[in-house]
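Final report, section 2: Outcomes. Of the targets proposed, Molybdopterin oxidoreductase family protein is the one most frequently requested by collaborating groups, and we therefore present its record in full.
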Amino acid sequence: MNQPKLNLSPKVSDEVRKTTCYMCACRCGINVHMKDGKVAYIEGNRDHPVNQGVLCAKGSAGIMQHNAPSRLRAPMKRVGPRGSGEFEEISWDEAYDIACGWLKPIRETNPEKLAFFTGRDQSQSFTSFWAQNFGTPNYAAHGGFCSVNMAAAGIYTMGGAFWEFGQPDWDHTKLFMLFGVAEDHDSNPIKIGIGKIKKRGARVIGVNPIRTGYNAVADDWVGITPGTDGLFILSMIHCLMKAGKIDLHYLAQYTDAGVLLNGDEKSPEYGLYLRDENGKQLVIDRVTGKLTPYDQKGVKPDLAATHRAKGVTHVPVFHKMAEMYLSDDYAPAAVAERCGIPAKRIRAIAAELARVAFEESFELNHEWTDFRGETHKTMTGRPVSFHAMRGISAHANGFQTCRALHTLQILLGTVEVPGGFRFKPPYPKPATAHPKPHVGLTPGAPLNGPHLGFVHGPDDLALKADGSPARIDKAYTWENPMSAHGLMHMVISNAHAGDPYKIDTLFMYMANMSWNSSMNTSGTMQMLTDKDENGDYVIPHIIYSDAYSSEMVAYADLILPDTTYLERHDCISLLDRPICEADAAADAIRWPVVEPDRNVKGFQSALCDLGARLGLPGFTNADGSQKYADYADYIVNHERRPGIGPLAGWRMGDKGLQSGRGGVNAAQIDSYIKNGGFFVEHIPDAAAYYKPWNTAYQDWAVKMGLYDSPQPYIFSLYVEPMRKFQLAAEGHGKRQPPDHLRQRIKDTLSPLPIWYETDQTGNEGFTVNALTQRPMAMYHSWGSQNAWLRQLHGHNPLFVPTKLMREHGLSDGDWARVSSPHGEITVPVREMAALNENTVWTWNAIGKRKGAWALDPDAPEATRGFLLNHLIHELLPPKGDGMRWANSDPVTGQAAWFDLKVRIEKVEAPKESRPEYPPIKSPVGQGPEKLAWKVGE
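The predicted structure is given below as tokens.
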């Protein structure tokens, strides 16, 4: 009778503002509920194409990210020694004056002395545009130490890869196989997709040394030995080819399997494609028996025919594949022990892939016309799909492993078909459709072209006239010729060593390089603070931009404070890393749903100001005035080429607003805001599949401005540029590699995917694999300052498999010393049964340095949290040859984070995890003991 009266439906907000999340790289749509002008609640946007209303813990916790006590408050200049954390707040005008005082002289004399590298931002088309206008060749972003192997391998092989490049056909897939997928990447779409296919009874196979997240809900878990994924994949290819379970029609029509190769071992063109006078690859037409370009009307390439001309026999790519992969070296029995997977299981998984691909194939009644002019009444479905990410990419054999996985998909005929892997616009785009890297600098003028791109042979390497590297990170050199994304993990080390040359200013954005984003953390901190014989810093000037008081802030000379993601304009663009789905082109914005309450500015807007003050051509008008008032102005008014700007939606046409191509629309951002912060243009049904070869898709892509003309192509099972590098290493051509790299190039740059052991120099006695993995509730280092997310992962143990726990007499809560050839850490351990028996791992980026992120000095992240980064070095242990060998993939230069080998031993529990570094003095101080506020009544 006396029950209390409760308001079960309180008013959550006065207004809902729709924008794009930035709590990971997923770019979900969010509804930000506002109460009394403040953020009260964040939920998923049900209308958004990425997440369809689903939101993870990170997304919901964005309120805490926005209100974090660690937010920087104003521009700052260093007043104490580097690394001390002693700063003085200054005005933006003074900050710009300091930056210009450093940057203007080097731009006018030697622009390469600026190294401008950005971390996990999502505006790389803009930041690269700024760097190109400055004139420095030294620009790159996060991809070089994350997943460039996956991206580059995919583009060179088939014109795209996983995640932002493509996705499984969730509506038709019946077998889904994952390799090494990080749980914080693309998480909501994958969760939605796995739920959808499991509801239909589809099977999920997870390949990962660690069974968490997606692997925990997989029907089958394959606890593979780290670094052997490529060997496992090639063994399955062996099984499929031996059993004849490959799609020969698909291979002949849509790949280079029928393209002829020069077979004369003495020829300087040995192993290169046979081409006509127009550069078209040549095949033997199965119908006429004649030599013909692959793309002629009605041509059906022959996978078996050879061609003899001028005393040289030319064989199809497929012959080379059969010779390589039918070898007993790839038989399951030969690889099982190294992979940690029984031979019987390898054969069973290969058989299951074949069974589903071919026995459960189906037809869709979608008529389409291919690039050879042939009309097909149906589309053939192969309902097997794959997804993979950094887990298989971050090894020194990662590029070839990723190539192997793309090849497996292609052999099964599962790429761009119903039920398989599908590209997302603006992909597919083969390597030949991308720019080549440019390093032509002129003092006081822009660089001669884009920094990053795809090389097609030795002539495209970024070398100076004397053969030395043109870039500070040595990207696109003989050491790592097919870099694609640069080598961010080598910038500080190379700059400190003056190898290949010294720089004046290191300018970084959102890259926590003194802590969790760097190999060799102690060494990196030393390099950032080292002085020369004159008492000057070896790296003279460091400019850094971040939104928060991270570990890296203390090592900068000038701080440009960024906003939080709810206070800024951003553009998730088709020119960059868009939010497209396989069925639609889409892009999105962020906009200031709240105004900053501090003297901070979005980094991209700060670059607009700085670009104008430096007189950069792309950022000034003819009269010298500032061209773009801020980043929002740039987003609306910038055109990369006529009619193509950062945003594809609501552009101005002759008859009003239109999509894709069109003129500037002053109200464009308002239109995005009104539509929920995003734009979508669906692909016509006839263009939905077979995108690289489908004339309807090619025409639609031209209309949307993705291409300027139709650009059909065939997949490259055989990557000819790699053979060109091998030929150079064999002594052919004018541009030659240094002698000490010849054998490595010949061994690792095979044009067909191979597997090789990674370099284990110096690892004697270190026999246990050690990995990091990101938790779903965290993203890089940002999440572990978040008051809500810290309750999920306040500290991290080292997870140890049962076998090693028993061998070392360890129990949960014990501590272990973990050592590598580079260093040691002392950390708490926890047993995990669902783990490869010779692998230990931990969550990445939970450990924090005392004083950073406004955390209490006794915060568990600083006392029980830790990083494996302390055990990893950007250079391999000395080989005794006097060379500095990078801990990187020899093809792309991607950081080989996951090749780490360690030794573990039980020790007495210390008071805190080790190593212990002195606390950083934070410019924002320590946060309150209790973080609480009330929004509304």
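The chain is about 25% helix and 15% strand.
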